[in-house]
Amino acid sequence: MGGDFGPRSIVQASLACLSATPSLHLALVGQPFLLEELIFGHSAVDRARLTVVPAAEVIGMDEKPSQALRGKPDSSMRVALELLRDGKVQACVSAGNTGALMALSRYVLKTLPGIDRPAMVAAIPTQRGYCQLLDLGANVDCSAEHLFQFAVMGSVAAETLGIVRPRVALLNIGTEDIKGNQQVKLAASLLQGARGLNYIGFVEGDGLYRGEADVVVCDGFVGNILLKSSEGLATMIAARIESLFKQNALSRVVGALALPLMRRLQADLAPARHNGASFLGLQGIVVKSHGSAGVQGFQSAIQRALIEIQENLPERLHGRLEDLLL
Questions:
Q1: Fewest CB atoms within 10 Å of the CB: 161, 170, 253, 317?
Q2: What are the two backbone dihedrals, phi and then psi, of residue 286, each rounded to the nearest 5 degrees?
Q3: Cα separation of 292 and 16, whole Å?
Q4: Which homologous superfamily is 120-273+313-326 in?
């Protein structure tokens, strides 16, 4: 029921994913009359694989997490998380209020042993491929111990994507040992002594995009600004290039020749393709879609959840956490 475009976009994305993945079953949680109206007319929908679960209340995008936690026991977000807790579904995907989703996830699902706070992680395009960046906004203020836990979880998440011995780095204002605030320096000391973790030291923002690390760790304040700046920069560059190719006849000819490559680049860098931030550290799979994501973006978030189900990410995390933290 959440997100900037509401259930219309989410229903369309869900139907597209059902069509593309025959093994997929989806439960849409929210106001039945509205959801059924949006589903109606799609005759090709296999209703045996699509369930509508009623929830009377909706959490607004501007509501405080505490209000959502205490004041709306029948919200669509809470009902969806309770389905996950009770084993009726294997993952929860939401485009709603991020703070409320995090608070409800911690309350309903609980964190894995050894984890104080869940962290949001997503893939960022680099020159060499992709980098897993966390935290993306769930934890604005973090201790050194929190950053250490994020590093461990990020490393396991990268392993599930096929990366052997992921290179883990702390985002900092310099690569020298003397640089950074106290939390980052203390986190570096903890990571240097962690067995089984491929910690490579500090990385700067430009080093992240050069692909110097597979996992980059920071607090949620920095991570959220970096993520949204990256999305804005990618959109701005695409618009500027398109404008340049329309300036005169010669540039239009050059643009026509370069169009296939430009479309490929735009597709590779499009935020929608990489949409879906995982809440690592919970006893269950929760994926947060960007609130402004359209149909393609929400499909990417569902696909992210499918990968984590197939890789059994919470169990893998639990096993690695026992080795490194407990």
A1: 253
A2: -130, 125
A3: 18
A4: Isopropylmalate Dehydrogenase (3.40.718.10)
Please say if the pLDDT value at position 326 is more than 60.
no
Measured CA angle at 229 (ends 192, 118), to 5 deg: 45
The C-alpha atoms of residue 95 and residue 6 are separated, in whole angstroms, by 9
What is the model's pLDDT at position 262? 65
Is the C-alpha dihedral spanning 71, 73, 75, 76 positive or negative? positive
pLDDT of residue 10: 92
Are 56 and 74 in contact by the 8 Å Cβ rule? The answer is yes
The token pair that represents 250 in the structure block? 């010669």
Q: Which of 270, 280, 276 lies closest to 305, judged by CA?
A: 276
List phi, psi (to 5°) of 157. -60, -40
Q: What is the mean pLDDT of the chain?
A: 87
- Any residues with CB less than 8 A from the CB of 293 and at least 6 apart, and which? 3, 9, 95, 272, 275, 300, 301
Q: In what order do the strands lie in the sheet with 119-126?
A: 92-94, 286-288, 277-280, 119-126, 129-134, 215-217, 168-171, 199-203
Altogether, the residues listed in the chain come to a count of: 326
Please check whether residue 155 is in contact with residue 167, taking contact to mean a CB–CB distance below 8 angstroms.
no
For residues 59 and 100, the answer to whether their CB atoms sit within 8 Å is: yes
Q: Token pair for residue 180?
A: 């950074």
Which position has the token pair 């490929």? Answer: 264
Give how far the C-alpha of residue 70 lies from the chain's centroid of Cα atoms, to the nearest Å. Answer: 26
Residue 142 neighbours by CB distance under 10 Å: 26
8 Å CB contact between 112 and 318: yes
Q: What is the pLDDT of residue 273?
A: 58
Structure tokens at 105: 């996830």
pLDDT band at 34, cuts 50/70/90? very high
Given a contact cutoff of 8 angstroms between Cβ atoms, the answer to whether 139 and 119 are in contact is yes
